[in-house]
From TrEMBL, chains A, B:
<dbReference type="Pfam" id="PF02779">
    <property type="entry name" value="Transket_pyr"/>
</dbReference>
<dbReference type="InterPro" id="IPR033248">
    <property type="entry name" value="Transketolase_C"/>
</dbReference>
<dbReference type="GO" id="GO:0019682">
    <property type="term" value="P:glyceraldehyde-3-phosphate metabolic process"/>
</dbReference>
<dbReference type="InterPro" id="IPR001585">
    <property type="entry name" value="TAL/FSA"/>
</dbReference>
<dbReference type="GO" id="GO:0004802">
    <property type="term" value="F:transketolase activity"/>
</dbReference>
<comment type="similarity">
    <text>Belongs to the transaldolase family. Type 2 subfamily.</text>
</comment>
<keyword id="KW-0808">Transferase</keyword>
<protein>
    <recommendedName>
        <fullName>Transaldolase</fullName>
        <ecNumber>2.2.1.2</ecNumber>
    </recommendedName>
</protein>
<keyword id="KW-0704">Schiff base</keyword>
<comment type="similarity">
    <text>Belongs to the transketolase family.</text>
</comment>
<keyword id="KW-0570">Pentose shunt</keyword>
<dbReference type="InterPro" id="IPR005475">
    <property type="entry name" value="Transketolase-like_Pyr-bd"/>
</dbReference>
<dbReference type="GO" id="GO:0004801">
    <property type="term" value="F:transaldolase activity"/>
</dbReference>
<dbReference type="InterPro" id="IPR049557">
    <property type="entry name" value="Transketolase_CS"/>
</dbReference>
<dbReference type="InterPro" id="IPR020826">
    <property type="entry name" value="Transketolase_BS"/>
</dbReference>
<keyword id="KW-0460">Magnesium</keyword>
<feature type="active site" description="Schiff-base intermediate with substrate">
    <location>
        <position position="139"/>
    </location>
</feature>
């Protein structure tokens, strides 16, 4: 038999103190009463706080009360008394069955009235009236102000639970008040049989305080020693005190006074043990239950004590055991110098404080909730917009037969709030700069963006053209649509672009905000955290990231599902402000946007449901990236209802912004002479610095290698236009793109090999088609030498050639490096400049021009037998080979193919026509570089041979490596001699 | 005149309570005494705690005391009494000048003795003896146990500061004890003139508690009202109480008893106001100073109260003003029902607790510090190893003329601790699996790794061969050296590989640990956080990351410099345990390694100095990646000293491990028939699942697209060998590499386009030369259709061709997809398999073989005019074009070039020889793919034309896009017809 039920046999009922509406609605309370021997309930502001603030069980009633225009405190009382009344009704059959001996529900007066007799009287009467149930107990603390109120209320016929009892003295006063009240009733000719009262004695709190006081008295090791030893009393005083109190209770039962009352049918005032959870983990978890079992007692247990007791509680009548020992404990306590009066007084003070704190917290939380509800009624039009966006998204994707409707549904409120309330933007002007920007990092939610633009009358393209050939409403956002600044769809990239846009706004003195909507799944991408770091380091306070935590990824649950604090902690650890909200609560969303204006960057972590609004999609796995069939669409539309959204977006811009007139760059003045030794990376850096002077829109980013790429020259001269991106190349590229799409000439530099880190970003930059975006990869090829293969850019030409609309340049000396850098700033789209670590001699005069798509014939004669096509470092090897071969009477043509893409096909084809073979030499893997390009472009019968890296390189001196891997002057010469047989 | 100095005029001296050694050493205390009117000092365990735990002012003395083998408590007393004695000496001239009227220093007995009369007596006597200064006051609390001790000690001639006074009643007892002690001295014929005592009355704490109690009594708005109003008393009680106490003091002065004592030269027991900092910010900041100024008083002020008072304190004699009001306040307090006895009792309890807590914290912190120091003495041999590694690193890099010595110097202790103490490893067996693993993520610190291996006798290659051609001691770690599992040097990659190694250990039941050393700079790489997330999600508790926070990056300070909590918070937010340590404190390092064993993954955040150990390098910017010249080297070596390191690394393995015998995979049974429609991605997935059955070493990773790549079939069948990597492709690739280098056949899959995200990891995987590492990129090309360009893999062939030692496969139907997947598992190195989204018909019979480097001639005849070379989806377009052309009487040869790298050059060359032109058709950018490869490989006079993607693609139907971008059957046919004119 369950120990809890066995308690009843010994005259003890157990109560709980964690009443909530959920417990009532779910049938849990009734089940406990019917099956588990539960005999009573007390309310608890801490539990109510949790329940009201964190569940939605009360929301419907709150809604109604708000509609009735009730104040917050009235709402509080209505919520609580509803629960109490319902609980009373559940316990009523028991109460009736036990003839009013048990089956009570307690409700406390405000703890702020603990020292206010009159106030307590008034509130107790009012609550008694509101609840209007015979098995209600009003809870009043046993303070000196409480006792007269208790007597008066009992006299008036109101049942009282006297709480916060610690000392026997105070208990005696309480018992007397009860007897007195009953006597007065009899005197006044009133019945007494139905009057009930319990005296609540608190237990574990006594031990907590007394144990601490005892610890002050425990002698230091080896020092003097007190008798009795304080440690012997730890954890014993509360029980001892309660046992002695019970003896007093028994004395009262034997008093003449009580006997007389009992004869008139009065019920005894039972003892209730409260605060019975064990707080010190070193103690037994049922220590406040087992020793206090006996007739006419109640034990109010918290949930885990109930579980523990049900599991291993030992039941026998114990409350009258060891009375002498109890007396001894109290005596020894005094001997040690601990005055129990003081203890009781401190506990009473603390007890009241512990009631006030959750009570006030509850009122505050309720106030917030009420305010949110009141706000929500004001945001109804936006809610209708959100529903309309949902409807449109479902129609669009069903018509397209594909797409990601559920990923759109989760962010409908967020998108509605942004486009129809929060953002300053101009639906007539997609290219306006002085407006807020929206970046849809979770690009697969494109349909809701198109829907929002359509509803705001910013586009007039038929939404049902979604995903159809030649529609700009593509599957993921692309700049084919004029509203799209950067292509998204490869996740985790939006925030980096947003960084760039926020930087551009700052540079152009535009006080606009940038909103970036991310999915929770994409937060697994490290690039998000690179971007987060950059934003906080650069204090991009106008940047707002919104994470749509819809908990479901493509192939199953997202790693952290709805655990929004994970995201909040991460953003915080990267220096962001964070706000966690319900992402379907428009009032909360608007409030978060307001908060985000105070400081930033701010991440709003929005808990949402994927597929929100449609019952068979909401929170359901397996729906990612699937359109509904027409029948399901109809069902979904029916669920979403037919309210007409009617929010007009008025054009709102931020100040005025006049874009600067771009002047063509004059020719750079270059001071090199033929034969000067200078690394192309150095010349690139010098050119950037010079260009900075007359290209105010030139901005430069580097990934902690500015002293290697030589962007440091620019950084020193134009610190405001240089952005140190640290070792985070993905964000560097994304930020550079963001700057570029705002009209900056953006240049990002790193080691060529480390640009591979950002290939996906470079790829997406290609799809974003920025006006000007330059990359420079330094330290190309094996010629870097001792650092070894990890630092060698050997795939950069392959990588950059295969980028949408790219230009690939590879200078070989200082003059061409400077001129090509200048050219790059005037070239549309993505331009890659490949530079070299070692110094190379200047071979061009400063008046040389280097058009994109051109090449330079460095050596030629009518006798040219072979052509050596090359670029960069190996130009110098080819020139040296030329001399060697010349000595052997072999004339070669040398072409510096500095424009790798576009290639100078004409010159190359002519050479193919005029010479016997083309040898392409490059410091790059043999695949995908200049050799491939030349071989494919020169469609002629002349053979093309490629000298490039074909085996894993290693550390060594630069010249040793060129030799070892077959691209040195010697290797070239040898190859040609071999070819000639 | 400074208000502080003016106080003296009115008989009040001010004391401070924040004595520290720093204050003594720096001359601050003396300056205050000499110039600022300071009259006394009390000690404070909270301040001592801060000073001893967080400064190094005490470290030298601690070192000495440890050497003398003193216990922690002895060390504590020695430290504190040293400060107290020194402070006494500083105040002594003042004490002498004032004839013992002021100039005192207080020292408290242990707060654990607050209720122990005998203990207090003994300790007070001992401290008095140790300090041995006449201007010392021993501080004893005014508890009931304290008062007899106070009297006795005063009688013995020991000066006493009576502390923790709250009530007038207790003050009276204290005053009586003083008088009694003096009388007893006189009776005993002892002098009294030099006996000093102060009675310390606490102020602001009273208001804190009373204000709270008053707040319990403030009526609710609109409810009943108490008279007097509790709010009117808030913030007033402490001052009122003190003023009344002062009146009692004055009464004593007028008593006969005192007059008699004064006549014998006794000094009065002055009143000291303590706890005078204002705690409620709503109150005036000098409220506990201004109203209590008067003769024979002291005010002990905290630092900010001193500043506030110096700034705006108003000085006049006030202590006897408003006495009536003070009385009224105390009376009203009683009226309101607040019993001041209880208040005083609670404050006394709390006050003792507030003394005990910092006192215990101080002893604990001191204990930790002492333990660290004791440990440090034990780790001396390791310290010598660290120094030896430093010496070697400097010699190696200077000899090489390049390298990163300063980045090595910062982690010398960490590396020494790992290789010479912590790790279980076997210097004889670089390939052992059942040992701990070390991954040097900050690969540029390679020299210290080589140095450690050399010192441990694990390599016999001359350390001075560093960076020289053919040495395995390369500039960054590469697997040319047998100890290197994965090449590092591209930062932020080590942790992902460590994840893979930890997973492999788990799979193979090897209980070894994986240590990964990172730099602080590389923590800017998002990939570190991808790896951190993966590690915690997969509960890799044997993984330990050590971050060498040396604060300096390549081009300047690292973003967070020495702000180690930033790193700790980040790792915590990614689910890691963290430990912050001084990275040069070997005892702390070893301790952290021990702690890390409890749970994990654990990140040890080590604060270090770049260039540690060499004065001109340590913490100096501008030294990254620079070797010393020979002269500087000599200087550095001289600084590093010449101790001989002598720690032998004994082989230590973990259990036994027998590698499984790998069996060759039997041929897969494939159930497709010609014409069946199946996507190659699906066939790939099915093949993986079948292979899983007889390849126990096959492991599969996916990036949240397993339902698209179809690795889900494998994941369902072999959940233990499938690792969901979420949307974090860099970590997926790095983890796959880690698994691969442990002997797994590792396969990582995602959309082809998203593998670009991990190009740097793929590049480094190439340089790491794993036995078997397979990548599958699905959704290649424009044929994916409506999702648009962001989802189209158009550069993957270019990317994977340009990877060291890679194989690139591109099947066109179910049979070839399955066979090539099986082939991939048997192929050395990195294999890329490209798959397609749409279904394609099966064209091969199941007995067809697909050797690597082969191709299939699908159509041929003697009349072949042209050759169509293609692979994947466009094979089917070519076959359809074949039919169309055939109808027009044009015979073509169709080659399925499924092995893109290596190419079947022979077959292609033959075709070039036998037909008039080659048309290469591919669903890829025109650059870097099959077209380039074929054009470059087929070195013949036959022209090669490329049909591939040349313009930015968009959303649309698959077949529409093939058509639009010129690679459909129709486009092919047309191209050939055009060619023919």
């Amino acid at each position: 038999m369950n120990p809890l039920l066995r308690l009843l046999k010994f005259g003890q009922g157990y109560w709980i103190d964690n009443l909530t509406r959920h417990m009532i609605i779910s049938g849990n309370l009734k089940r406990r009463v019917d099956k588990q021997g539960l005999r009573g309930v007390t309310s608890n502001p801490k539990i109510f706080h949790e329940a009201i603030a964190k569940s939605d069980d009360y929301d419907a009633q709150i809604e109604t009360l708000i509609a009735e225009d009730r104040s917050n405190i009235e709402i509080y009382e209505a919520l609580v008394t509803t629960d109490i009344r319902d609980a009373c009704d559940i316990l009523r059959p028991l109460y009736d069955e036990l003839k009013g001996q048990d089956g009570f529900v307690s409700l406390e007066v405000s703890p702020h009235l603990a020292h206010d007799t009159q106030g307590s009287l008034q509130e107790a009467r009012r609550l008694w009236q509101i609840v209007d149930r015979p098995n209600l107990l009003i809870k009043i603390p046993a303070t000196t102000a409480g006792i007269p109120a208790i007597e008066e209320l009992l006299f008036e016929g109101i049942n009282i639970n006297i709480t916060l009892l610690f000392s026997i003295e105070r208990y005696q006063a309480v018992a007397q008040a009860y007897l007195k009240a009953l006597e007065r009733r009899l005197e006044a000719g009133k019945p007494v049989a139905h009057i009930a009262s319990v005296a609540s004695f608190f237990l574990s709190r006594i031990d907590v305080l007394v144990d601490q006081l005892l610890s002050h008295r425990i002698p230091l090791p080896g020092r003097s020693h007190l008798e009795p030893h304080p440690e012997d009393l730890q954890g014993k005083v509360a029980i001892a005190n309660a046992k002695l109190a019970y003896q007093h209770f028994k004395q009262i039962l034997q008093s003449d006074c009580w006997q007389a009352l009992e004869a008139k049918g009065a019920q005894m005032q039972r003892m209730l043990w409260a605060s019975t959870n064990t707080k010190n983990p070193a103690y037994r978890d049922v220590m406040y239950i087992e020793p206090l079992i006996g007739p006419h007692t109640i034990n109010t247990m918290p949930e885990d004590t109930i579980e523990a007791f049900a599991d291993h509680g030992r039941v026998k009548e114990t409350v009258e055991e060891n009375i002498e020992e109890a007396q001894k404990i109290i005596t020894e306590l005094e001997k040690i110098g601990i005055d129990f009066h003081f203890v009781a007084s401190q506990l009473e003070n603390e007890g009241i404080q512990k009631f006030i704190e959750p009570y006030d917290a509850l009122l505050e939380a309720l106030g917030t909730k009420c305010q949110q509800r009141r706000n929500r009624q004001q945001v109804k039009p936006l809610q209708e917009v959100a529903q309309q966006l949902r409807r449109l998204v479902i129609q669009m994707t069903t018509d397209a037969g594909s797409g990601h409707p559920t990923s759109c549904l989760s962010c409908a409120e967020i998108v509605a709030a942004l486009f129809f309330h929060e953002m300053h933007w101009d639906p007539r002007a997609p290219k306006a700069r002085n407006v807020d920007t929206f970046i849809l990092s979770k690009g697969h939610a494109a349909p809701i963006l198109w829907a929002a633009l359509w509803e705001a009358k910013a586009i007039d393209e038929d939404p049902l053209s979604l995903r159809k050939l030649d529609s700009t409403l593509e599957g993921h956002p692309t700049p084919n649509n004029p509203w799209i600044k950067v292509a998204t769809g490869s996740l985790g990239q939006g925030l980096a672009a947003a960084n760039g846009i926020a930087l551009a706004n700052r540079l152009d003195n535009i006080h606009a905000r940038v909103y970036c909507l991310l999915g929770d799944g994409e937060c697994s991408e490290g690039s998000v955290w690179e971007a987060a770091q950059f934003a906080s380091l650069n204090k991009l306070s106008d940047l707002v990231a919104i994470v749509d935590v819809n908990a479901l990824a493509q192939s199953g649950p997202a790693p952290y599902q709805h655990d929004t604090p994970v995201f909040a902690h991460r953003f915080q650890s990267f220096g962001w402000e964070t706000i966690e909200i319900d992402g379907h609560d428009l009032a909360a969303i608007l409030n978060a946007f307001e908060q985000a204006k105070k400081t930033g960057p701010t991440a709003i972590i929005a808990k949402t449901e994927k597929g929100k609004g449609v019952s068979f999609l909401e929170g359901k796995d397996g729906w990612h990236g699937k359109a509904l069939d027409p029948a399901s669409m109809e069902k979904a539309l029916a669920e979403l209802g037919e309210n007409q959204a009617n929010v007009i977006v008025e054009p709102r811009r931020i100040g005025t912004y006049i874009p600067p007139q771009r002047k063509p760059a004059p020719a750079l003045s270059i001071g090199y002479s033929i034969g000067d030794e200078i690394a192309t990376r150095d010349a690139f850096g010098k050119a950037l610095k010079k260009l900075g002077d007359f290209l105010p829109e030139l901005v430069v980013l580097d990934g902690d290698v500015k002293n290697s790429t030589r962007t440091e020259y620019f950084s020193e001269e134009y610190p405001n236009r240089f952005f140190e991106s640290y070792i985070a190349e993905q964000n560097m590229v994304g930020t550079a793109l963001g700057l570029a799409v705002c009209g900056k000439i953006s240049c990002a530099a790193s080691f060529a090999c480390f640009l591979t880190r950002a290939y996906d970003f470079i790829r997406m930059a290609g799809h974003s088609r920025p006006p000007h975006l330059i990359f420079c990869g330094s330290h190309a090829g094996v010629s870097i030498g001792e650092d070894g293969p990890s630092q060698m850019g050997l795939e950069d030409l392959a990588m950059f050639r295969a980028v949408s609309g790219s230009t690939v340049l590879y200078p070989c000396d200082g003059v061409s490096a400077e001129r090509l850098t200048a050219q790059a700033t005037q070239t549309q789209g993505i331009v890659y400049i490949r530079t070299t670590r070692p110094k190379t001699p200047v071979i061009y005069t400063t008046d040389e021009k280097f058009p994109i798509g051109g090449s330079k014939i460095l050596r030629t004669s009518k006798e040219d037998k072979f052509t050596l096509v090359t670029a960069g470092i190996t130009v110098h090897e080819a020139l040296a080979a030329y001399d060697r071969l010349k000595q052997k009477g072999i004339s070669t043509r040398i072409i510096d193919s500095y424009s790798v893409k576009p290639l100078d096909v004409e010159t190359l084809s002519k050479a193919a026509h005029e010479t016997q073979a083309l040898f392409v030499i490059e410091d790059h893997w043999i695949e995908g570089g200049l050799g491939d390009a030349v071989a494919a472009a020169v469609n002629s019968p002349t053979p093309v041979y490629r000298l490039a890296i074909t085996e894993e390189p290693r550390s060594g001196k630069s010249e040793e490596l060129l030799e070892r891997y077959g691209i040195s002057q010697k290797a070239i010469t040898q190859k040609i001699l071999e070819f000639m047989g």
